[in-house]
What we know:
Strand 3 (68-72) and strand 4 form a beta hairpin. The model has no long low-confidence stretch (mean pLDDT 93). By secondary structure, the chain is α/β, with parallel strands linked by helices. The protein has a four-stranded mixed β-sheet. The radius of gyration is 15 Å and the shape is globular. The chain is built from five helices and four strands, in the order E-H-E-H-E-E-H-H-H. It starts with a strand and ends in a 5-residue tail after the last helix.
Amino acid sequence: MKVHIIKRSGWRIPRQFSQDWLSSLNKELKRQSPWDLSASEITLVFVPRSEMQRLNRGYRGKNKVTDILSFSGAEDGELGELVLCGEVIEQQSKEHGLWPEEELGYLLIHGVLHLLGYEHEGSRQKAARMFKLQDRLFDVLRKAYFEVKP
């Protein structure tokens, strides 16, 4: 999987972690599902709070900042674009008792699942299916990257 990273914010972006995590995610997806994203491209765009709020308002009609937005790719081989807000990731990592990279990893899984067609709004069954897979993937990858906190 080819990963492009665009920085539009002052947040320190863990570039190598993001690339390694997405590569590991692809390996685990191949193991657990029919997905193989090896030939795909994904773009990660890190934006400040103000831009994330503007995007969330424009695309989802929600006038508040969010952690991640997913935009499907338009061309063959282009999985899509994940827009992330590092400031929100930092804040949420503290609330969830995680390292910022752990929170980022969880959100990258979430975003990729959206790009693959998974949804969690509008149906409890769809939400349960998506979050079950997301949590399972996170548990596997987290053990490989982090010392799991008690």
